[in-house]
Design a protein that fits this description.
This is ATP-binding protein. The chain is of the alpha+beta class. The chain is built from four helices and five strands, in the order E-H-H-E-E-H-E-E-H. It has a single domain, classed as Heat Shock Protein 90. Helix 1 crosses helix 2 and helix 2 runs antiparallel to helix 3. It is globular, with a radius of gyration of 17 Å. The N and C termini lie far apart (43 Å). Bound molecules: adenosine-5'-diphosphate and magnesium ion. Magnesium ion binds next to helix 2.
């Protein structure tokens, strides 16, 4: 894993990687020492402004993703951290399910920007799993399923939840260079999250 590099849509090298044995190991062992404070679940001594980490496609890494998200929001209360981690996990689920980032040796990057009034998270994936591309000069944005929050809905929950609970969200609109983001304001007073019956 190369944590700090840019995620490009194409990674010709990945298919040519020589086989290595599978291993079960503590997740701390895959985190370089310089990045361990991203996963500590504790606030930094100083306020960070931007934090970025690249994850591999293995589902076994998802606890690390949740630790990253929770730690990005470690300076806020448990309610905010829970919601931020929940919404961030939906972006990751979508990158793994609907983009090439979920393929063997795939990867995606999470970037958290800390603003005065909230956190902005971007998930950059490796482009549409089907290989679909967006013609130059056009953008086709993701659209939430209007029935995604229905109690019986079996799909379409991720973007519908983002639409309902994030302060704002959007995506790059380019299938081969997909970046999906949301902003979650610290003040959840008017959020549907706090107003739920
Ligand atoms: N990162 C992504 N790359 C490509 N398509 C995406 C991505 N995220 C979401 N989508 C598209 O948006 C649709 C709705 O996403 P979501 O609401 O999370 O529902 P679900 O994941 O259950 O299909 C997906 O079915 C997919 O077509
Ligand atoms: Mg989804």
């Amino acid at each position: 894993m190369v944590p700090m590099s840019a995620v490009g849509p194409h990674d010709p090298g990945a298919t040519e990687l020589p086989p290595l044995p599978q291993a079960t190991l503590p997740l701390w062992d895959v985190v370089p020492a310089r990045a361990r404070h991203y996963f500590h679940h504790a606030p930094d001594r100083g306020a960070y402004t931007t934090r970025r980490y690249e994850f591999g496609s293995s589902l076994e890494l998802l606890p690390l993703v949740r630790a990253f998200l929770n730690t990005c929001a470690a300076h806020r209360d448990a309610d905010y951290r829970y919601l931020f981690t929940l919404l961030g996990s939906e972006l990751v689920n979508n990158a793994l399910t609907h983009s090439r980032s979920g393929h063997p040796h795939g990867r995606y990057a999470l970037t958290c920007r800390r603003r005065g009034n909230g956190l902005h998270l971007t998930c950059a994936d490796q482009g549409d799993a089907s290989g679909r591309t967006t013609p130059a000069g056009e953008t086709h944005h993701l659209v939430p399923d209007p029935h995604g929050l229905d109690p019986g809905a079996e799909r379409g929950r991720g973007l519908a939840m983002l639409d309902a609970l994030a302060t704002g969200w959007g995506d790059s609109g380019i299938a081969e260079l997909r970046q999906v983001w949301f902003f979650l304001a610290y003040d959840l007073t008017d959020s549907r999250w706090t107003q739920a019956p």
